[in-house]
Amino acid sequence: MQEARPIQSEVSGYISNLLRQHFGKGPASVYVTIKRPYITIHFRGFVSPMEKILLDQEEDKRVLETRDFMFNALKAEILSELLTITQLEFTELYADWNLALKSGIFIGVMCDDHLIDPLGWPEDGERDIFHKQVERVSEEAGRIPDSIETLWMSNRTLLLKRSGILVGIEKALIEGGFSEILKLTKRPLERKLLKAAPLNHSLQRNIDEVFMDWNFSHDVGYIAFILSADSR
């Protein structure tokens, strides 16, 4: 495996060019973090001229649907290129967008996705409190997950994996072919609940952004918390 910084730079350049090619405008900045078995690609300043027109007309849903369709079409290509650049085989790829902040994230997952946390939490109690808070949010949105795991990708990016999260009505919607509608409904609901939860206290940091995506067939979901640089 190559040195970390050149790999990150190469992935950043690839993602910038990919988005520019398919959306007509690339992001202003791309931040890449690799920590086995994950990669997070967080980009800012990303909205195309056509999307801006739609957003000005409050057509947010149409923009999100288009981006999700485009992402799904490009997923295999992105995974293949990540393998070429990093020599790491990511088998799953997730995406989410923050239209208000013109930002987004891609999350890649390798086959062996057991979370390893070399940075760790300052105190185990803070991790337990944080997990309990996420459990309460998940229960309010549907059900308590069977398991929750967290990984500090960096001092500003906390990745959370939830397993066993779907309720019966959600499974029925997925079986009926309404996965995209379910995602577009779950995201704003869970973001609202997470924003209302006192997560800042257990993290001792302010949360700048929250991204989330799911693999409904595996009944798992990921949440990426982008934290402020300064401690509270």
Automatic annotation (TrEMBL):
Q: Which Pfam families match?
A: MpsC
**Out of the domains of life, which is the source?**
Bacteria
Domain Na+-translocating membrane potential-generating system MpsC: from-to ranges: 7-110
Q: Under which name does UniProt file this protein?
A: Na+-translocating membrane potential-generating system MpsC domain-containing protein
Source organism (scientific name): Planococcus rifietoensis
